Amino acid sequence: MIILIPSFEPDDRLLTIVCALRSTAPDVRVVVVDDGSGPHYAELFAAVQHAGADVIGYDDNRGKGHALKFGFNYIRKNHPDDAVVCADSDGQHKVGDIFRVVAQLQASDGAMVLGGRAFAGEVPVRSRFGNAVSRSAFKFATGVAVRDTQTGLRGYPASMLDWLLSVKGERFEYELNLLLGARSANIRIEEIEIETVYLQHNASSHFRPIVDSVRVFAPLLRYISSSLAAFAIDAVGLILLFALTDSLLVSVVGARLVSASVNFLINRHLVFNPSNRSHVARDALRYVILALALVASSYVWLSVLVDWGVPLVIAKVFSDVTLYIISFQMQRRFVFRSEARLASKPESVTKPAPEALEALEVPRVSA
Questions:
Q1: What is the mean predicted confidence (pLDDT) over 231-238?
Q2: 351 occurs within a structural domain
Q3: Residues 28, 77 within the same domain
Q4: Cβ atoms of residues 161 and 84 within 8 Å
Q5: Number of domains the chain is built from
Q6: Together in a domain, 10 and 152
Q7: Do 178 and 242 reside in the same domain of the chain?
Q8: Same structural domain for residues 60 and 32?
């Protein structure tokens, strides 16, 4: 078991947590990634290495996501059979909670384990609000309930290392990308409650509220914007075709064919991103089956509502909102579903691109 700690411009709390981890479980290896903190922090990292941690890193700050992948690559090369638990360096994760995630990871069958904060007690407003919005948006977009989508305390089995390196993201958005990608890779997510700790109102956090929030929410926005784009294309097409043909059937079918084609391409390449990209024909056939079912449902809904005197545009909005959840869940579970679980068939995991691994090949920090 390895504890991986990405760190940028840390204070003495990094040394404290490393010493506590080493004294609690001397057999557990601790790997600390210096995310380009600079020469002013060399003495602290030297003390951390003296305390028993492996200290690796690079000269320029590249973001938390890059630091995590740098650590995963180091572990994959040097300790490929070891599971990994990631923790933050700012003291917000109690040592006891870290080892509870370790225990849960060892007991789970290849699941990703999250240490989720309950956000009880005195929590900074921006943190409470940000996590509430992120939690709600994530559940709306994926149908998966996760208490703490932004937690940095996470456990990954050894079989997941190649997949971890294949997921996009260099900064704070990377960890949310892992949650979103877990669904298409058929990775279970298990969550245990941990203590909520915010020291000095989270003053040590390097999270930039505007810039990094955009990065974090970008994957979620892709989910939602894909459907909105398809809806807009479908609605405009429906109105234009109906004006030209005066046929509801032709209008519904024609508009849906165009919007469905665009939606398929966006979802396959940007949203669901299936682990096996070679099954284009299979995915397209599944999508066509789903699209035909949705066209039939949409036609029935619109016919009934228009007969009742509901304006076409209002009827369109009502029917599509109702069918949105069904469409999303069917795409997630049927159209773009991976064929095997990651834990049981690691060979099916998408390998990281060679250029991505080359970007991680940087010298180790000297003590």
A1: 88
A2: yes
A3: yes
A4: yes
A5: 2
A6: yes
A7: no
A8: yes
326: pLDDT strictly greater than 50: yes
* Residue type (1 letter), 310: V
Q: CA dist 357 to 6, 166, 294, Å? A: 18, 9, 42
258 occurs within a structural domain: yes
Strands (E), the chain: 2-7, 29-35, 54-58, 84-86, 112-117, 154-156, 189-194
User: In whole numbers, what is the pLDDT of the chain averaged over residues?
Assistant: 79
Does the residue 366 lie in any domain? no
Average pLDDT rounded to a whole number, residues 157-178: 88
Length of the chain: 367
Please report the DSSP string for 310-353 in residue order.
Answer: --HHHHHHHHHHHHHHHHHHHIIIIIS--SS-TTT-GGGSPPPP
pTM for this model (two decimals): 0.64
More reliable by pLDDT, 179 or 32: 32
C-alpha dist (Å) from residue 63 to 36, 67, 241: 9, 6, 49
Tell me the CATH number at 181.
3.90.550.10
The gap between the terminal CA atoms of the chain, to the nearest Å, is 23
92, pLDDT greater than 90: no
Our measurement of the distance from residue 190's CA atom to the centroid of its chain's CA atoms, rounded to an integer in Å, reads: 14
Burial class (CB in 10 A: 0-12, 13-18, 19+), 90: buried
From the number of C-beta atoms within 10 Å of its C-beta (0-12, 13-18, 19+), residue 157 rates as buried
pLDDT digits (tens, 9 = 90+) for 260-313: 788 788 877 776 655 555 677 888 888 888 878 887 888 888 888 888 888 888
Tokens representing 23 are 């004294």
Residues 6 and 143 in one domain: yes
Q: Is residue 365 part of a domain?
A: no
Q: pLDDT tens digit string along 120-134? A: 555 555 555 556 666
Write down the residue that tokens 């004294």 correspond to. Answer: 23
Q: Which residue has better confidence, 317 or 57?
A: 57
| Residue 222 contacts residue 176 (beta carbons within 8 Å) | no
Residue whose entry in the numeric block shows the structure tokens 């060979």: 347
What range defines the domain where residue 259 resides?
219-274+277-335
